[in-house]
Amino acid sequence: MPQRGEKDTHQDEKGLISPSPYTAEMTASAEAVYAELYRKAKAAEANGHPESAHCTTFNMVREAVKTIIPNDPLNKRYALRGKLSNIFRLRKGRLRICWIASSQVRRICILFIAQTLRKEGDSHDPYVIFQNLLESGLFDEVMQKLDVRTPRAKR
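^ thats the sequence. predicted structure below, dont judge the formating
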């Protein structure tokens, strides 16, 4: 544990000192999607199909949640704009993972994981679904906990 005034750091694979990755948590809804992806991947492996789309998708999500996001959660290339500013997302094909982060407490919270097709304006567009969940207040508690501004609701 760093002392007051010291930065929390670790050595990367090249021996260079860098800031420690952020601690990650998930909302119940994101955790349910993650668990379902895991279940499908394990079933595919058990049936002798470790190369299946289920395994590939779960491996992408696991890498994102365990490595990519915690190591650089505030990277501007992941930042959403407009009504969803202060929220970040990673996209790979159909996959969308949305999160918030606090640099003060070095924590992130994965809010949303989706695999629906992206068709702007469609009711099944992952950003429309995510915006509706935000406006419903579902994520208000975790956003307050990490001191992240909550997007304004529709009027």
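The helical segments are 28-46, 53-71, 126-135, 140-145.
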